[in-house]
Specification:
Elements: H1 3-25, H2 34-38, H3 41-51, E1 61-62, E2 69-70, H4 80-87, H5 90-117, H6 124-135, H7 150-161, H8 167-175, H9 182-204, H10 209-225, H11 227-234, H12 252-265, H13 278-292, H14 299-317, H15 324-329, H16 332-335, H17 345-361, H18 366-382, H19 385-388, H20 395-399, H21 401-411, E3 419-423, H22 427-432, E4 440-441, H23 447-463, H24 465-472, E5 477-478, H25 506-511, E6 514-519, E7 531-537, E8 546-551
Parallel strand pairs: 3-6
Antiparallel strand pairs: 1-2, 4-5, 6-8, 7-8
């Protein structure tokens, strides 16, 4: 390996260290994504590891949430990220997970590009620059290497497909499942690779048994690890909230518009940040291919261009209402999100980026290539969580542990003796702090509980069609929705907002064990809801003011 390439590799790993350093330097003062992260997964890991049910049976429940959330809703105990959170404080577990994911992403993309895409010595800058850019993309944290680990898996599988017997290939296929998710990435990757294997069979008229067995081997590991998911999906008879999930509701025009949006901007769970630099660069390369008539020489480049757009189209049209006849006949099409084939896009887009730069480099545009790499790295730097979420609450401000400890002390009862619910803040905050909650954010819980909880908020849902559809046709956020607040769950302490027309069925709330409401906002008509303000809790270390309301007795509000 040339000395310059070694230096560039060293610089890349140093860049990754600097990129993840805020979690370790700032600790709980660090900022990070709230959506599908602070508002859910991080609290889930803590609840799971303190519940005593980490290794619970497939029939176990976690009483801290909704009077008994099925243990299976929290996934497998064999996940590496669960163990990080079991062994380390949450903020450091999060930082270590970020580092692991980004290092694996870099190594995987580098190996894939060097061996199968950009082989020429003068492509060194492209290989390393694109690999670093890929490693710095703002992936969904709890997905781990579910998407960013795909290049490493592809590298190993391509080696096996080519007849290589190196042990490292099987080590890769064995270890990747322990730090990734089957349903949030690798189901779609492995099924796509299965299609590739089938195409090989048809084209070359040979079975390539070793390649096929490698796919089966990796799939078998995932299914063994995800035995809870397999049991819930195939053998559980109890209806769950997933039974009322309806995805096919977009008109044809809306699906077309979503196709374009996804193609240009990407998706929140697989943010590729490709619209400003990579997309224009790929079209510059496409123009060169067209002008120079390089159709045969650049088949991979052209395929990836088409495949990228096809993935966005598939994603958007999965929500097209034309699916309704099929989803009504085959309910599993609603329960399993097949739109997630677009999770292949990060790998596809960055390999396409590398090929685009190669085509441009071959036209003696070294400076242009360097500028494109630097531009993409600068854009990704702006998406570093400490920069992108600097206006959001820090980890410490979000979970407000000191403030919630004070609330527990004020109530003065063991937390398992009463239930709480939150208004204007995510229930994950109370859960993280050990409270037993009637509300939650989970996409897999008993349907009977959803229907019972709905009675608490029925009047509020009747006032707001958006909230009603959101709860009735999804229900993952089993929240105490308030019509006048809409889908806003983060009212910080500097807000002037007040709740004026709340209508809750506190009789049902009380019967379910609910005794306290933790509200980020004052409730002006609390008395008509049989609520009494106990105390307002304020803290400099918290993003919230918490108004503690007690249910004095059951009763239905008639405002």
């Amino acid at each position: 390996m040339p000395v310059m390439e070694k230096r560039l590799l060293f610089f890349s790993f140093l860049a990754i260290v600097l990129f993840v350093s805020p979690y370790f330097l700032l600790g709980e003062h660090a900022h990070m994504r709230v959506h599908d992260n602070l508002d859910s997964n991080i609290a889930w890991y803590k609840v799971l590891t303190t519940s005593g049910e980490l290794f619970g049976s497939i029939h176990a429940v976690i009483p801290q949430i909704i009077n008994g959330l099925p243990r299976n809703a929290f996934g497998t105990e064999f996940s590496g990220i669960v163990w990080l959170h079991a062994l380390l404080p949450s903020i450091y577990a999060y930082g270590v997970s970020q580092a692991i994911t980004r290092v694996v992403a870099f190594i995987g993309m580098y190996l894939l590009l060097k061996k199968y895409v950009i082989k020429a010595p003068d492509g060194m800058w492209i290989r390393i620059g694109v690999s670093l850019a890929f490693a710095l993309t703002p992936f969904w944290p709890s997905g781990m290497i579910s998407t960013l680990g795909m290049p490493l898996a592809l590298w190993a599988l391509l080696n096996i497909r080519a007849g290589e017997h190196a042990f490292v290939n099987y080590v890769v296929l064995t270890l990747l499942p322990f730090y990734s998710s089957f349903v949030l990435g690798f189901f779609f990757f492995l099924s796509a690779m299965g299609i590739w294997w089938l195409i090989d069979v048809i084209r070359y008229r040979r079975w390539n048994v070793r390649f096929f067995l490698a796919l089966l081997y990796m799939t078998a590991i995932y299914l063994a690890m995800e035995y809870r998911l397999v049991h819930s999906f195939l053998f559980s008879k109890e209806p769950t909230s997933r039974d009322e999930y309806f995805h096919a509701r977009l008109s044809l025009w809306q699906a077309i518009r979503l196709t374009v949006k996804n193609y240009v901007l990407g998706h929140t769970h697989v943010m590729t940040v490709h619209g400003l630099v990579i997309l224009p660069i790929s079209f510059v390369a496409l123009f060169i291919v067209w002008k120079k008539k390089l159709w045969k020489e650049e088949k991979m480049f052209l395929f990836l261009h088409l495949f990228n757009f096809a993935l966005s189209t598939w994603y958007a049209f999965w929500f097209y209402k034309g699916w309704l006849p099929l989803t009504e006949r085959f309910p599993f099409l609603d329960k399993f999100n097949f739109a997630r084939y677009h999770f292949l896009r990060p790998m596809v887009i960055y390999v396409l980026f590398a090929l685009s730069l190669k085509i441009i480099l071959e036209k003696n545009r070294q400076k242009f290539v360097s500028m494109a790499l630097v531009a993409q790295l600068l854009v990704l730097t702006v998406f570093n969580e400490e920069i992108a979420y600097r206006s959001k609450p820090s980890f410490q401000q979000f979970y407000a542990e000191a403030q919630f400890t004070e609330i527990k002390r004020y109530i003065g009862l063991p937390v398992h003796r009463y239930r709480v619910a939150s208004i204007g803040i995510h229930p994950a905050i109370a859960q993280y702090n050990g409270f037993y909650t009637l509300d939650t954010y989970n996409n897999f819980y008993p349907l009977a509980y959803k229907h019972r909880f709905r009675k608490i908020i029925a009047e509020e849902l009747s006032k707001n069609a958006t909230l009603r559809e959101y709860f009735d046709e999804w229900g993952g956020r089993c929240y105490v929705f308030v019509a006048e607040l809409g889908k806003n769950y983060m009212f910080k302490k500097n807000t002037k907002k007040k709740i004026k027309h709340l209508q809750l069925n506190t009789d049902v709330f009380y019967d379910m064990g609910g005794r306290y409401i933790l509200s980020a906002l004052p409730i002006e008509n609390a008395a008509s809801n049989k609520l009494v303000l106990e105390k307002v809790f304020r803290s400099k270390q918290s993003a919230w003011d918490i108004y503690l309301y007690k249910v004095v007795r059951g009763g239905t509000n008639n405002d």
